[in-house]
Design a protein that fits this description.
mainly alpha
Amino acid sequence: MTALSFAEALADDEIELNDLQGNNPCRQACSQAAYRVVLAAQCSTRIVAKLASPE
């Protein structure tokens, strides 16, 4: 739920900041926000895995 809320907040900011109107521009902003959240989650997962692995 946190990732979803974060993606929604990113998309909302993008839509408001660029005054996006209509379905396609808003859909694109939402897709980009979701993609950014996925990338952030993947990177943080790798960092956590690296920290947890014994050396």
